[in-house]
Amino acid sequence: MVDLKVKIHDLEFKNPITLASGTCGFAREMADFFDPSIVGGFFLKGSTLKNRDGNAYPRMAETPAGMLNAVGLQNKGIDYFIENIYPEIKDYDTQLIINVNGSTVEDYIALTERVNELDKIRGIELNISCPNVKEGGMAFGVSCPGAEMVTREVRKVYDKTLIVKLSPNVTDISEIAKAVERQGADAVSLVNTFLGMAIDAETRKPKLSTITGGLSGPAIKPIALRMVWQVANAVKIPVIGMGGIMNAADAIEFMLAGASVVQIGTAVFKDPLLAVQIIKELEEYMDRHNIQNVNDLVGGLQM
């Protein structure tokens, strides 16, 4: 029997296969397809301090080997989550990590303080790809000072596992990773979506109401894999990898590049049971290669 257990700071995952924020709802949606306890964890849908209606439709568009989305963090706010969703999911036998978002540092702090009170939520994924409204809309995570500032302030009020989700829309993602590590991040997750756009040639109009949106899916995998490898070789904290994982081989490649845990995202829309299948095939791969502990795969790229 192979050992699939992985630990990131104080979070113990029964296996390294998790579902990515924005693709698995608040975990309860996936319970219609499989027992939530099978997977290592859920990175829950992005939450904000107050209700957000999201962007106008259309806000999703299929592209070759991927999809664009501009949902705009639609959610009913943290109070609604605590009162109506948390009681339903808190006893799932798996890790539940909230994806935290804000338009100001004060938003991040206030939201994190609320989440810190929830006993069954033992980690947050800090999304620093959000626009900093006080700085003209530039995302917190595209500069080292911005990434450091929000990580430092959130760290002050959060005493559980702090995972910072990195934007790939930067010049050097390794520098951003090192910046948040300096400010107390326990791990980093990457990559978030790439900025892209799609046009309908017949109507000559953008396919998204926001014109541009976030590109995900298998089209981004080679770039995401490269970034995970770069960051894993630049920081001492664990790395959580994502970006176009469609099968077990993809997940294993991310682990070989340095990811301790992987997130399955866009592929869930095509096959809600994919994460369960990947766990099975990961075990078979380890048996085939005589690997007893899944942690031995991490960073095992042969040069």
**C-alpha Rg (nearest Å):** 18 Å
Structural shape: globular
Main sheet, how many strands, which sense, barrel?
8 strands, parallel, barrel
Structural class: alpha/beta
Output the CATH topology: TIM Barrel
Side-by-side strand order of the widest sheet = 3-4-7-8-9-10-15-16
Order of helices and strands: EEEEEEHEHEHEHEEEEEHEHEHH
The percentage helix is 25-40%
CATH class: Alpha Beta
By CATH, the architecture is named Alpha-Beta Barrel
Question: What is the gist of this entry?
Answer:
With 303 residues, this protein is an alpha/beta fold. Helices cover 29% and strands 21% of the residues. The chain is built from 8 helices and 16 strands.
Overall description:
The chain is of the alpha/beta class and about 300 residues long. The chain has one domain: Alpha-Beta Barrel (TIM Barrel), CATH 3.20.20. Helix content is about 30%, strand content about 20%. The chain contains 8 helices and 16 strands. The chain has helices at about 80-90, 105-115, 145-155, 175-180, 220-230, 250-255, 265-270, 275-290, and strands spanning about 5-10, 10-15, 15-20, 40-45, 60-65, 65-70, 95-100, 125, 160-165, 185-190, 195, 200, 205, 210-215, 240, 260-265. The strands form 4 sheets. It has an 8-stranded parallel β-barrel, surrounded by 5 helices. The chain has a 4-stranded antiparallel β-sheet with strand order 5-6-14-11, with no helix packed on it. Strand 8, helix 3 (about 145-155) and strand 9 form a beta-alpha-beta unit. Helix 3 (about 145-155) runs parallel beside helix 4 and helix 5 runs parallel beside helix 6 (about 250-255). The protein is globular, with a radius of gyration of 18 Å. The mean pLDDT is about 95.
